[in-house]
Design a protein that fits this description.
249 residues; 78% helix; elongated
Length: 249
């Protein structure tokens, strides 16, 4: 007598084969145009797995179809919408490698920029993906200057630079809280010199001023104070310096 466990295992295997066969037969005899329409409909409904299957079928079986580049781009978009940013980035990069002159190349390049930006972590963590995203986005800005994709990439890059500035500022605050004045000054200066457009510059100048006061470098403190008052007179950091001046008086 055959053990029940073996019978059950055989039944499950048979069911799996039927299911696989049914999935493949769904696309038998379906034209690439129809597959693309199916993928669009599935994507619109949020059925990512079904959209991916249809697009994969196009890419595997209909590589000479005249809209195969669009299928590749949509595949990247589906993965991005599914929050699978690494795979999305890979698909966008494949598009750019294979179809660099295609009218949709700016969309693919922006997709790679957006995918990396979505992987950028909070400021307290390692910013490797942030820096990689900035580099990718800058390429879009340069390569497609004057286009909306370029403008969007610039906005993303600027936002990510704020993240890097905040990372350096938090490093400075960490050392300042521990009375490690020289290390704090170094990171405050990173903010000022590397990210002069960031929102953290006034507070970084205030930090440089305070750290130099603590060390006793009055000339360097005065230089930071004056720059803060000259360049950011309406900032909260400038108001703090002015308030301190008033209390000293």
């Amino acid at each position: 007598m055959i053990p029940r466990a073996l019978i059950a295992l055989a039944l499950f295997a048979a069911m799996g084969l039927v299911a696989c066969g049914g999935g493949q037969s769904r696309y038998q005899g379906v034209s690439p145009d129809e597959l693309f329409q199916m993928a669009e409909a599935e994507f619109a409904e949020g059925s990512h797995d079904n959209a991916i299957r249809a697009l994969d079928r196009i890419l595997r079986e209909h590589g000479d179809w005249d809209r195969v580049a669009e299928a590749r781009l949509m595949l990247g978009n589906v993965y991005f919408d599914r929050d699978d940013y690494l795979t999305a980035r890979a698909e966008y990069n494949r598009f750019m490698d294979r179809y660099p002159g295609h009218p949709m190349a700016p969309d693919a390049a922006l997709g790679a920029c957006r995918s990396l930006a979505a992987l950028a972590p909070i400021p307290q963590r390692d910013q490797g993906y942030t820096r990689e995203a900035i580099s990718a986005c800058r390429n879009v800005v340069i390569d497609f200057a004057g286009m909306e994709q370029s403008a969007e990439a610039a906005r993303i890059s600027n936002r990510l630079r704020q993240t890097l500035a905040e990372k350096e500022f938090l490093n400075a605050e960490f050392y300042a809280d521990r009375n490690m004045w020289d290390s704090a000054i170094k990171y405050y200066e990173f903010v000022v010199n590397l990210y002069p457009e960031s929102d953290f510059v006034p507070d970084a100048l205030l930090g440089i001023y305070r750290m130099n006061i603590a060390i006793g470098y009055d000339d360097l403190a005065d230089a930071a104070r004056q720059r803060l008052l000259d360049e950011y007179p309406e900032s909260a950091a400038a108001a703090q310096v002015q308030a301190a001046d008033g209390s000293d008086g």
